[in-house]
Amino acid sequence: MRQPLETRERRPERGGGARRRSVRRALPAPAIALAALALLCGPAAAGSRVGDIARVQGVRDNQLVGYGLVVGLTGTGDRSAGFATQSVSTMLEALGITVPPADVSVRNVAAVIVTATLPPFAKAGSRIDVTVSSLGDAKSLKGGVLVQTPLRAADGAVYAVAQGPVSLGGFGAEGERGNQETVNHLTVGRIPSGALVEREAAADFLRGGRLWLTLQQPDFTTARRLADAIAEVAGPGRAHALDAATVAVSCPDTTRDGAVRFLAVLEELTILPAGRARVVINERTGTIVAGGQVTIRPVAIAHGNLSIRVGTQTAVAQPLPFARGETAIVTESQIDMRSDGGQFTVLNEGTSLNEIARALNAMGVSSRDMIAIFQAIKEAGALQAELVVL
Question: How far is CA 366 from CA 289, 357, 370, 373, in A?
């Protein structure tokens, strides 16, 4: 989609040069840049959207927290939490009722911590979900109602106010002789749309006429590709990769509306992120995840009574007679495994770790054994990837 546009600009047109120059003078420079971006983006090529692999600095979530009371419980509230009785006394005093803390029974009240996430560009009057967690020794928050609770950010300002019935994802039952049956957690609940936003959080994404894009997975190659892709459509000198995670972009239109339009176009660009060879192992669950870029060098493995040889053979593929094909070199992976602990040999080249995993799965090798095998391959220096053990 990009080459035809360049060809059309360079092709001389009979008698149309002056008219084309007059049109360009009539349009402001930001409008020309945005129009070129829209034409050059076109259908997405193979790769990932910039909006999916990068975020704009200054556009972020904000964490909110508050302390409140859940009332209306059926005897499952706090029993010995002194701060709960003090909180009830303070709340009643604010409502015009003076009750000493010693005279307050909190069996039906639970002190809770209320947390929420304020998304970027949340406007005053919109609603967000909140999570309510017991702070004392309450047994259950089932049937409780959260009393009006201010939610503050790290700067101490109140950004939202939460209130409403608490919804639990479980239940519990207790018999006369102490028998109990509990499903899920009873001291943590949610209030969908339970907080009302009272104040907007600042989102300053355009500073000094520049935008900063941050990669979700920092990588020098990906940052360079992102800067090159932006410079190709927005013009040379518009984008610069500052490090493995940050790309600075000069905005052609520094107005608020122009910056939003420019970002909308940038998010639709597609690049091919550089893959990182990595094997992630969770020993607690026996989970193994290997990327497609993982390969191994020639190696021979014997695990218990299991013998493995891995490698590849190179062959020459000839096209059929009178065909328009070309002679090509074809690499064929070979994996030979024996369960009798016999002798084995090693071929010259390595093979894909994914192929080894599939072969091991076909033989019924447990995930625990696979973890031990992969760790041994890494220690032997044959695993061409980063090994991450959770």
Answer: 14, 11, 6, 11
Strand, coil or helix: what is 24? Answer: helix
- Domain range summary for the chain, segments of one domain joined by +: 28-58+204-271, 62-170+180-197, 278-389
The correct CATH number of 28-58+204-271 out of 1.10.443, 3.30.200, 3.90.1150, 1.20.120 is 3.90.1150
State pLDDT tens for residues 290-322.
776 777 777 676 666 665 555 556 666 777 666
Q: Which residues pair with 110 in a beta bridge?
A: 70
Pairing type for strands 210-215 and 239-241 reads: unpaired
C-alpha closest to that of 269 among 291, 238, 244, 242: 238
pTM, two decimal places:
0.64
Q: What is the DSSP string of 245-288?
A: SEEEEE-S--SHHHHHHHHHHHHT-EE-PPP--EEEEETTTTEE
Residue 21 scores a pLDDT above 60: no
